[in-house]
Amino acid sequence: MKLELEMNDLKRQEVEFLKKEKELEDKERLEPWNVDTIGHEAISSSRINKISEKKSEAPRLSEEEENRRMELQCAFFKNNGDLLKEFGRLNNLESSEKFLLEHPHLASDFSASFLTIEALNLAVQLKDEEMGIVAEQCIIIQYLLELSSTLHALATNTNVIRNFFKKFRCADPSYMVMFREEVEAFKDRLRKRGKDKRDAAVAEQEADEKAKRIAASPGGLDPQEVFDGLPQEMKEAFASKEVERLQAVAEKMDHEVFLYHLHRCIDSGLWIPDAKAAESNANKSEVTMAE
Question: What is d(CA 192, CA 162) in angstroms, rounded to the nearest whole number?
């Protein structure tokens, strides 16, 4: 009984779709889709698509609804990840149409989210050519979803999918220019976001390394920062690891300035002083390089 109801529902949708297509056929002869309403609404926090000024904001979901949506999205990713990766590597319309007709359930905003994340990961890895292919497949899914919305039909309906690719192949050149511009703009945003993520990862790694250096230092100072802040002649002396050069610098440099930097080097663990040396005679003391 349930299967029969579902079949009847699909038949009803197909009839409505064909009727709507007939009504729009003359109007859309040279306008395969309403480009102005092709949306870029954010699917999740990981989406970075541009939001169309002409598209009304989606109603805000409750926390419960948002959690439920995230659960569904995670399940979709888990169940269809391999298929979506395969689709994301296709680089021609014929293969894309054939693939979606074989797997119509992939005509989903969850697929657009997955492909966006996949393209962003490639952008982070500086795999620009691969990123461009996945980005274009993502835009194709978004255009398909927009057409189905315009027709008030399910994007997973194979008739909608066939009609979309038919219109896409026969589209007016001006619309194809818009499509290419859309893809290029998306790729540019992905590149920028990829750079931001790389920079953030480097900053996080540097912060972790700094924290470890400070934790290991005797006086809670970062040896790298201490070294960078040394006068040039002291830098060269420390870098040479020659005690005699440091002593020579001490003889020429202002006593207070030398002591200030020497104590910072000791507190950071950059140098370890001879325990027998008198602090008052630090400018002549022997020092041993820290390992």
Answer: 34
